[in-house]
Amino acid sequence: MSSTDDPRVVAEAATEDYTVHATPLTWRMGRLSLASVWWALASAMFWLILGALVALTVGTVDAIIGMVLAALVYGGINAVFCGYAARTGLTANLFSRALFGHGGSVIAPILVALTAIYFACFEGSVIAVALEAYFGGLPIQLWYLVVVLYSVPLILGALRMFLDKFNGALFPFYVVGLVAVVVWTVLEHGYDDTWVTRRPETLPVSGPGWWWAFTTYLADFVLMMATWDFARFARRTAREQRFHRWVTFGPVFYLFTIVVNGLVGIFVAMNIPTEGPLTEISGVLGIVGLMGFSGVVFVWISQTRINTTNFYLAVTNLESFTSRVLRVRLPRVAWGVLVGAAVYLVMLSNVFDFILVALRYQAVLAVTWTACALTFILMGRLTGAGDAEWRPGRVPRFNWVGVGAWSAGTVVGFAMLTFGAPTSWTGTWALPVAFLVSATVQAVGSLATPGRGRAVLERPHDPREEVGDVWADRVRCHVCERFYVAVEMDRDPAAGHEAICAEHAQANPTFQRAAVRDAAAFRDGTDHPIGALD
Description:
InterPro entries: CodB. By secondary structure, this protein is mainly α. The protein is built from 20 helices and 4 strands. The chain has helices at about 5-15, 30-40, 45-60, 60-90, 90-105, 105-135, 140-150, 165-190, 210-215, 220-230, 240-250, 250-270, 280-290, 295-325, 330-350, 350-385, 400-420, 425-450, 500-505, 510-525, and strands at about 475, 485, 490, 500.
């Protein structure tokens, strides 16, 4: 045991950020630093254009109602998630083990990674288009390459070592740019207050326009999963947690991100003429045409901030996925290069229409995951079950309650999307119905499960029960001989019950088989004492 951080672990964390480990308290970030990193998501041009597209479809008033409802729902759910992630130090990937079991949780990291790569392609292409429109000189393919080449190095270090300072420094410039876009638009085109009351002659969607607007924003529920990957860096004091629940990840963030950005997008879109239908690309060209070099700077700041988050999420989740499925660990630099190459190839392939369709189905997976996670946490509070058990040797291969809940909602959501257009009744209700189905199955299954309502491999000899403080005490792993906080450590029945860390427990099939046998022996009353070989 040790009471201090292992220097070798700290050196590795400087690039790996405890991606496959519980995040120790010594690696947590101050509230302003963490807010600076997460608020990079608030600066995507996507939020401006989405607000404008929703308003053009259902009218400004209905769009605003839908945006406010979405901001409150996002903020409320993430207020719960951020507190839980900070208390447990878990990523969405690690927490998913408690939901779905060791084998069932592999979908979560690949879902986040693929969605992050999609947004990195989309937002990166916006920067490239702005640079080409203003500077010219190079074909768009080379501008794509320029964007990727400067984006990858920005995420090769640890989150707490650079990105907080980088994004924090750029945020004031984004706010100034947002105000400048509005002022410039008024000076150039005048002010017409009819944008507030504008409404289409016929409503092209099923149901109330505000409800369609609200459900449109639910397609970005992957942000709920991303919250875990960032909130695990939060300190656990009451003061810090209040700030994060309200400001960093909660209602304040989403009111700014969805509502303020959306209002600016609506105003600008209805006052700046664009060539052809409004898209993120045509909107950016309109801003560059209006503001010139200042517009290019504004676009660069907004998109570079969001892309640091996109690339970071893609890299860390691909790293988690491959370490779980392929049992391969590569340095962060290698993952950065691979993600950059993938982003560039997708940009060149011009498959954005196909990706847009795929994203609708990914949204179903994110919504149903959120329903399962939220219900799991709330049911745990209701039954007094406490925090989740997530260690590889203490959860079954599949938690059939969680897998069934996620699958049921996903099947229903996929079916509704497949057999209905986005503006039809099924398209409008697909995500809310999928959420309700998953939440219901998760709740009923949890109540029907004996004991704590959770699938856990009950085994003896838990290191958590052998130390004074699971977050302050470190225990040496017998595989890598490094010390990690006791909260993630287990004993290896295949190696004389020596201690083993979470990373090597998940990558060792011999350990997992031995853990299952150990649990069976414990149930039968034939438990092996510590030190006995299996």
